[in-house]
Amino acid sequence: MSTNIKKAVILVSGGMDSAVTMAIAKQQGFLCHALSVSYGQRHSAELDAANELAKLQGAALHKTVVVDLRSIGGSALTSDIAVPESATEGIPVTYVPARNTLFFAYAMGFAEIIDANEIHYGANKLDYNAYPDCRPEFISAFQRVLDIGSKNANLGKPIKLCTPLIDFNKTQIIQL
Question: How many CB atoms lie within 10 A of CB 58?
Fold first, then answer.
């Protein structure tokens, strides 16, 4: 492959946000490499959907990393805490401690291995209003990690963390 090919790691959960994020990256001319994380979530449906999404959208490669966040617990997604029927105030019980930090770290490693230019993640307004690790400030902080802590950046090939849906609500994402 030519070194002129733009490559992106797309964090793929199997949901609408990651589907639209990958579609945007493809429209921008990126060769997409899907990365999913099996972190001990209660249901495998999202990983099954991620596999289908990667196939349907023609990902060059789809990797699933296994991380055991059930051993830490603390979330309705990784332990026996009940999932509420409706939205609650503050940080919801579906927040998984350190999940996005780990996702981004694995995406960083994968991006370095395949020499990707960017990492794409589907965080949006709804996410960052509830989850601290989806907020623009967190994304900016991890960009700094990429800038100083990746081999590629130190070799003059920085990796950009992109959140193309960050200013969109769910209705806008559906329309997009």
Answer: 11
